[in-house]
Amino acid sequence: MAEAIDRVGFVRATRTLTPTIRLIEIEPVDGFVAPTPGSHLDVSVMIGDRPDVRSYSVVGPCADGAYRIAVKRLEASRGGSAYMWSLAPGSRLAHSAPGNHFGLTLGRPDYLLLAGGIGVTPIFSHALALQRAGARFRLVYACRSRSDLALADELRGEIGDRLEIVIGEERGRVDVAGEIARLDADGEVYVCGPIGMLETARRAWAESGRPPDRLRFETFGASGRWPAVPFALKIPRLGKEIHVPATQSLLDALEAAGVEMIADCRRGECGLCALPILGLNGVVDHRDVFFSDAEKAANAKLCTCVSRVYGSEITLDTPDR
């Protein structure tokens, strides 16, 4: 659920962490609310001349009263990351108070933190909180290349050998099932990363027979198995044919065309924006974590907020009323 954009801040500083990730410090004007581990800020961005909202994880406890968020510049960005990267010190930014859908539960005997790419941002806060609490935990951080690592030096300085880095170009993928097998029977797993990592973790967790509520994850809705391409959307019941650009979500295209939609998270988690699939010329790139593997394979519905078509056309029905 989106938080209320009812606060104002100014960009205090920016710092480039990797060629594609920038840390932005925001000094709030309307009072500082201390974030809890896993918190995020919703911020107002401009996509061309149209206002929109984007959500970014808060990095660390922000003990000095300034919020820190990390923004990955995406080639296939719908415009949010490009706008955030355009901000310079002194820029005004409307934002929410910290919200949290990925909170940390203390008191477990063991923790496994799994981070992939920019997914390290909320996991960073979890790791620092667990370290301060004296908890038993491990953090496995995966990236394609060493140039993609963000916050790794800070993590190593804070948690030492509890951090394991896996570089795809050097040693392949994380053995998620093996990492889960090492976890205490009453331990918890926190995962944030690309959709492939999330689905692998969900599958391995289910196969382990552990309680479902001990697997916690957060999505960022930007990754898929296929690159974003433009495609046509047909809605026979409304007599509409809509062009969906590579830089626009299916949900945004529907709303821009005047189709009344039901939506909440806009991150592929709640399923409220899902629509029935009537026809397809291409492949559905299911980027959500709401539907199961079997439901995705059946291709009966898709979450319009994050999922796309790799192909030329899809035909959908309208929302149920």
Automatic annotation (TrEMBL):
Keywords: Methyltransferase, Transferase. It comes from the Bacteria. CDD domains: fer2, PDR_like. One of its GO terms (molecular function) is oxidoreductase activity. The keyword Signal does not apply. Residues 4-105 form the FAD-binding FR-type domain. One of its GO terms (biological process) is methylation. Residues 229-321 form the 2Fe-2S ferredoxin-type domain. The keyword Methyltransferase applies. Pfam families: Fer2. PANTHER family: BLR2392 PROTEIN, NADH OXIDOREDUCTASE HCR. This is Vanillate demethylase subunit B. It comes from Roseiarcus fermentans.
